[in-house]
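Quick one:
INPUT:
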């Protein structure tokens, strides 16, 4: 075997014609190999140090999409080309010296290596465009937009197109292919284009909305492909990397959809795809190119193709394999021919794990701190070269190897004597020269607004001088717009020279009265031209649209005359201050603004460590422009309208007990935090902390009331209304059984022995109610000056130690209880009802004086949640209004006069069944509601507009959590990440905010 392979290897030598590297990983198949070898002795020729390190699209926890961890290079025409995700530019360097030849600005981060073809260079950007540039000087020859419009959103702190071009271009047989769009529901657009003219040959714009099986078994939704990664072209196929999932296949002739086996490959995928006909490689698997089915499993992380075999990198080994034809038995026991990979040899290089290519007889392996060169003839590491950072990017051309690292550096190693030239641009200290007027204006703005962090918009920015002065003095992320393209060009050059462009200030060309920026994103709005010319009333309406609710400030005018306008609440929107929206447990935010259809407002990477989705942690909350989410070790507040983290308060291991599979979780315990007024109250079972909701600073600590000095006690339930904080003393001896897979239930307490009320401001005990039997946390509802609860015996059948096998044939009865109303201020009993109190949960309509008693009959329910019945009482008197048999499989919602509970709806005041049918695909969480909208999990995020929609709609590509994770409040649908621990290949894992889709 070794001799056969050596014959192949010996035919590859360094005497062949010089060879370029015109595309990412050399060619349309992304093989990662060229015929020309490197020199045996390599020396550092030059180092190009970018001003800024890459700013990857996804970098917090998900490593399946590592396509922009370094500035990957292509080499052609004697130049090195690359794009920058930091400063939004395309660069051309002299391949021999590393000196800059030209630069080209796009409107957003450039995340992928360009593609060189003839005398042209093609590059795509997060601004939604494909650009065709002259290879020699970077002149724009033509450009085309991938999506239907230029509207933008905030994505991980960067202003990007609603449909960024992240399907990186590939050229095959003189046809260029690329794709735009990452969110299936926003539209995915796949193109075949004439690279000479930009003429569209074929377009596929329907593959984002394919109704298909989703990663989890039994999950089906209208959610198709995404475009995230380098496209791969073979003779007949176009392979589209879909981000976290396996690639989709399209016919290369007309880009018609062929297959996307998302559910079958539910735990596989990633943006790294290599074709090796008749197969392709992705996420350690070799797939059949024709069918997309798995052909062979490997342990490879990186994969390089050469004529007779492949090179793989796995763990700390680089291995060479040869294709072999063998026989195996099919499923019926009959022999069949099978193409396999047979190991020839392996070696452990000094550097490994980050990248892998092949140049003739030289394997190049990249890792943390350097690269190693392996000779195919001798099967040995012949040299290693150190670099600063992790060598994620490799390319080779004309006997040289180029290394790109996560620091932003690009190294060239070649056969000439060691030069070690470092090419680095120094930042200009004063690109605007004397700039006193704008410096004074910046000082006035900061003095009047006191805003030094967040998103700033410079409307009608002029030459960018005011933005420059603000950037120098603050940590603001500034977006600027001007109608004059000459101003835009000047501002970009000046801010680029200062080292601020992209990473701190980005300038766009648009009319200030009609920008493409997203609604409500700006914490601060200023105007560079207004410093000299005064306020231009023509863009007042646009300024109001972009100004953030709940404190966004406009400060515009001449120096010394600037007026300040602070935006208040967004009219008609609701809050979500408790686990089930409010202390009344309606699961309805009373938000009248949000409705379907939905579209993205912002998305953000996952950087808060959340508990296991099956642990069913507490719901996120919303109050006055803030979204609060609780992680395993911290509580975080995020600006709901732009996604910017505002504060985090450390609570080490506060949700550690929830970080397991299939627990009761908040479905039984309730939440451990709530918002009351301008404070957030959060307990860890021992004590309750009061934090300022706007700043996260601790205000006070409240202890659990005790009957005796030696009584420790454990805090259970928590809620708050007006000046009263409610809590309970948990029954720590009652622990319910795990819900599916065995877990450690630990502190998952669902019942309490007493309920108490504290003064919010002082923590003084107002009153305490001691249960005769037990108080289930789900059976407490508060409102209209009263506390409603059920005092009912514990359901023995729910206990973890209950053994059903010992009681076969025996009917275990959960005894009825007493329904009570207590005065919220004094704890005095107002009324009681002892007639047929059978339920396990309560919800209150304050508006309609109705108290609903029902079951929490849901997926993974307790055995006591028998369902099939519900009743309503007059909340003021305790009189039963109605009691009916009703089949439902979700926790009931009270929305106005209607009770919604899958699959139907009932009149709250009469119990009459309404003409409403509701179905959804797989989803283990419950429904949440605004006045006009239901949101839930239906394979992906599902929703139902209650006014016009007759069926479930999907916002695709992402999955909600396993209880309440998506909340409709503040005029938005807010969805912090809750997919922790999930191996399913949903296309994107992120925190997002959705808004009602704009007309047109």
């Amino acid at each position: 075997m070794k001799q056969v392979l050596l014959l192949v290897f010996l035919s590859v030598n360094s005497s062949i014609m010089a060879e370029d590297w015109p595309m990412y990983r050399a060619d349309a198949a992304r093989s990662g190999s060229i015929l020309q070898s490197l020199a045996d002795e390599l020396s550092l020729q030059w180092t190009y140090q970018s001003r800024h390190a890459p700013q990857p699209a996804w970098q917090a926890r998900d490593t399946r999409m590592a396509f922009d961890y370094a500035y990957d290079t292509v080499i052609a025409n004697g130049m090195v080309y690359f794009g920058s995700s930091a400063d939004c530019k395309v660069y051309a360097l002299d391949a021999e010296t590393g000196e800059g030849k030209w630069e080209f600005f796009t409107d957003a981060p450039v995340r992928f290596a360009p593609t060189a073809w003839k005398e042209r260079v093609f590059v795509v950007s997060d601004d939604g465009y494909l650009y065709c540039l002259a290879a020699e000087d970077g002149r724009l020859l033509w450009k085309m937009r991938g999506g239907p419009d230029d509207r933008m959103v905030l994505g991980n702190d960067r202003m990007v197109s609603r449909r960024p071009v992240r399907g990186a271009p590939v050229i095959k047989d003189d046809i260029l292919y690329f794709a735009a769009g990452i969110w299936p529901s926003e539209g995915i657009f796949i193109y075949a284009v004439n690279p000479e003219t930009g003429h569209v040959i074929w377009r596929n714009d329907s593959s984002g909305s394919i109704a298909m099986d989703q990663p989890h078994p039994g999950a089906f939704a209208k959610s198709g492909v995404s475009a995230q990664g380098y496209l791969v072209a073979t003779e007949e196929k176009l392979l589209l990397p879909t981000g976290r999932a396996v690639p989709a296949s399209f016919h290369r002739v007309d880009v018609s959809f062929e297959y996307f086996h998302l559910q079958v490959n539910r735990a596989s995928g990633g943006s790294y795809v290599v074709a090796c006909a008749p197969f392709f490689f992705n996420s350690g698997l070799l797939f059949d190119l024709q069918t997309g089915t798995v052909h062979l499993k490997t342990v490879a992380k990186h994969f390089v193709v050469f004529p007779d075999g492949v090179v793989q990198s796995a763990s700390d080994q680089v291995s060479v394999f040869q294709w072999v034809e063998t026989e195996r038995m099919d499923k019926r026991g009959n022999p069949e021919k099978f193409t396999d990979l047979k190991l020839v040899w392996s070696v452990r290089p000094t550097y490994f794990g980050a990248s892998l290519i092949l140049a003739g007889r030289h394997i190049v392996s990249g890792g943390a701190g350097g690269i190693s060169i392996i000779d195919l003839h001798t099967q040995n590491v012949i040299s290693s070269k150190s670099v600063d950072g992790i060598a994620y990017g490799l390319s080779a051309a004309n006997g040289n190897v180029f290394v790109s690292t996560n620091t932003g550096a690009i190294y060239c190693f070649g056969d000439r004597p060691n030069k070690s030239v470092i090419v680095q641009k120094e930042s200009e200290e004063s690109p605007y020269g004397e700039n006193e007027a704008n410096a004074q204006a910046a000082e006035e703005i900061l003095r009047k607004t006191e805003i030094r962090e967040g998103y700033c918009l410079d409307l009608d920015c002029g030459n960018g001088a005011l933005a420059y002065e603000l950037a120098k003095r603050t940590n603001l992320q500034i977006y600027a717009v001007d109608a004059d393209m000459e101003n835009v060009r000047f501002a970009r050059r000046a801010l680029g020279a200062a080292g601020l462009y992209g990473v701190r200030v980005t300038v766009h060309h648009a009319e200030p009265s009609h920008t493409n920026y997203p609604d409500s994103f700006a914490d601060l709005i200023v105007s560079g031209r207004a410093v000299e010319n005064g306020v231009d009333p023509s863009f007042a309406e646009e300024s109001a649209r972009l100004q953030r609710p709940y404190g966004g400030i406009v400060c515009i005018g001449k120096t010394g005359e600037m007026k300040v306008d602070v935006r208040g609440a967004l009219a008609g929107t609701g809050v979500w201050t408790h686990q089930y929206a409010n202390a009344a447990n309606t699961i309805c935010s009373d938000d009248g603004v949000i409705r379907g259809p939905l579209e993205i407002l912002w998305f953000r990477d996952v950087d808060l460590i959340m508990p296991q989705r099956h642990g069913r942690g507490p719901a996120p909350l919303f109050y006055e422009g803030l979204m609060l989410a609780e992680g395993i070790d911290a509580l975080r507040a995020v600006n709901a309208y732009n996604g910017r983290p505002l504060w985090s308060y450390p609570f080490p291991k506060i949700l550690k007990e929830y970080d397991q599979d299939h627990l009761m979780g908040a479905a039984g315990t309730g939440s451990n935090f709530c918002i009351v007024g301008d404070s957030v109250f959060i307990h860890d079972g021992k004590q309750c902390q009061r934090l300022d909701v706007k700043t996260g600073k601790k205000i006070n600590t409240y202890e659990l009331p005790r009957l005796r000095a030696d009584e420790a006690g454990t805090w259970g339930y928590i809620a708050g209304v007006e000046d009263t904080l409610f809590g309970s003393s948990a029954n720590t001896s009652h622990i319910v059984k795990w819900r599916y897979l065995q877990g450690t239930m630990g502190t998952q307490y669902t019942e309490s022995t007493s309920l108490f009320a504290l003064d919010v401001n002082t923590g003084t005990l107002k009153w305490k109610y001691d249960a005769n039997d037990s108080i289930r946390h789900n059976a407490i509802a508060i409102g209209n000056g009263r506390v409603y609860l059920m005092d009912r015996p514990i359901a023995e059948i729910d206990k973890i130690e209950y053994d059903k096998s010992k009681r076969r044939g025996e009917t275990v009865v959960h005894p009825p209880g007493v329904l009570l109303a207590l005065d919220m201020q004094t704890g005095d009993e107002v009324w009681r009802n002892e007639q047929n109190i059978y339920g396990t949960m309560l919800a209150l309509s304050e508006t309609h004086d109705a108290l609903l008693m029902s079951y929490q009959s849901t997926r993974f329910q307790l055995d006591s949640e028998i369902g099939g019945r519900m009743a309503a009482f007059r909340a003021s008197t305790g009189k039963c209004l109605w009691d009916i048999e009703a089949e439902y499989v979700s926790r009931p919602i009270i929305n106005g006069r209607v009770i919604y509970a899958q699959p139907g709806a009932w009149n709250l005041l009469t119990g009459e069944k309404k003409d409403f049918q509701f179905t959804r695909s797989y989803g283990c969480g419950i429904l949440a509601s605004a006045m006009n909208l239901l949101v839930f999990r239906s394979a992906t995020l599902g929703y139902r507009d209650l006014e016009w929609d007759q069926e479930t709609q999907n916002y695709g590509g992402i999955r909600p959590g396993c209880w309440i994770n998506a909340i409709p409040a503040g005029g938005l649908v807010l969805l912090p990440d809750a997919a922790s621990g999930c191996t399913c290949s949903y296309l994107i894992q992120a925190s997002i905010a959705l808004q009602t889709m704009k007309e047109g």
